[in-house]
């Protein structure tokens, strides 16, 4: 769906303006994560990588996969065998019922269960990244063994092997994991821009934020706010579409969740920017980070069931250690 949307967006703008392909935008977090300053010659970092470095990195990823897979195995077993009764009524509506009539909207165990499910999702994404790095490493190894040297030619003049080698090295060695540390986020922007997975960040920005901001160019503040809402709305639509396809369950649970976080992000930016006189590019000290973390975490945890409950209703659990179920899923077992 996003591929189709991006293709139509390309047709709707000036033909001279080129936007990255969908596949290219999936790796948009890579350049921002490189631990190399922009004004330095990154070629020396690429040429410094040896087969030994690659072997050690792959061993590191294999160890992480084993540890995380064991944790996932225990998590999946618990989640499958201890599913709480999730009401059909949306979490957001139950919260409104509580505010209106005082009816309880969730119990502590369900909160705990949702927290475990989010942990499962985070570890799952992390394992996928480790698997990808191993695959990239297997592709990179012969390029390193055959001493495919980089050069200083313009990007379009470099050979395919050199481009592949440089991309693989930058991805494996100088890229943050797909899923960083969401539990230690200190603000909505930090969570959505740095800690949570960034796979669709650029695509959503091009399809939502930039067009809306341009349309309201006469009012920059309004354009920024509505652009943020547009990005989160698209994300909610995509997640609800997945829920329809995978679980045959139609709702707007994810739209509500993401729009809540859009408003939360806007409010946070207003308070921090206007009242405290702070900007998003300021590096906070330790005390400020602790204070922001203490404010952000409870609100994020409060909204967590709105995101997790639709998946829990669909019993979306998967373990890499469940060999029998994996074989059945792949059509290998009788």
From TrEMBL:
One family name in Pfam for this protein: MBOAT_2
Pathway the protein takes part in: Secondary metabolite biosynthesis
Gene Ontology MF: a single term: O-acyltransferase activity
Domain of life: Eukaryota
InterPro entries for the chain: Wax_synthase, Wax_synthase_dom
UniProt keywords, alphabetically: Membrane, Transferase, Transmembrane, Transmembrane helix
Family recorded in the similarity comment: Belongs to the wax synthase family.
Protein name as annotated: Membrane bound O-acyl transferase family-domain-containing protein
């Amino acid at each position: 769906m996003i591929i189709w949307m991006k293709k139509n967006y390309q047709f709707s703008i000036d033909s001279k303006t080129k936007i990255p392909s969908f596949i290219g935008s999936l790796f948009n977090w890579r350049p921002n994560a490189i631990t190399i300053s922009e004004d330095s010659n990154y070629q020396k970092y690429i040429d410094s990588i040896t087969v030994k470095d690659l072997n050690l990195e792959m061993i590191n990823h294999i160890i992480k996969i084993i540890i995380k897979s064991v944790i996932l195995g225990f998590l999946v077993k618990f989640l499958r065998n201890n599913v709480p009764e999730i009401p059909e009524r949306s979490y957001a509506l139950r919260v409104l019922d509580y505010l209106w009539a005082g009816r309880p909207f969730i119990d502590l165990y369900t909160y705990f269960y949702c927290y475990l499910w989010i942990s499962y999702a985070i570890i799952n994404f992390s394992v996928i990244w480790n698997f990808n790095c191993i695959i990239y490493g297997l592709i990179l190894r012969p390029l390193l063994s055959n001493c495919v040297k980089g050069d200083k030619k313009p990007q379009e003049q470099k050979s395919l092997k050199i481009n592949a080698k440089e991309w693989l090295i930058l991805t494996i060695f100088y890229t943050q994991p797909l899923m960083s540390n969401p539990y230690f986020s200190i603000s909505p922007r930090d969570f959505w821009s740095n800690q949570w997975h960034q796979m669709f960040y650029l695509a959503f920005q091009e399809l939502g934020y930039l067009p809306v901001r341009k349309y309201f160019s006469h009012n920059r503040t309004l354009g920024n706010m509505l652009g943020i809402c547009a990005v989160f709305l698209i994300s909610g639509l995509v997640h609800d579409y997945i829920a329809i396809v995978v679980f045959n369950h139609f709702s707007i649970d994810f739209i509500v969740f993401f729009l809540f976080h859009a408003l939360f992000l806007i409010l946070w930016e207003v308070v921090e920017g206007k009242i405290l006189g702070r900007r998003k590019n300021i590096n906070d000290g330790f005390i400020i980070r602790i204070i922001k973390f203490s404010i952000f975490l409870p609100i994020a945890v409060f909204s967590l069931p709105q995101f997790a409950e639709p998946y829990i209703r669909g019993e979306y659990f998967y373990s890499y250690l469940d060999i029998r179920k994996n074989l059945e899923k792949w059509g290998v077992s009788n």
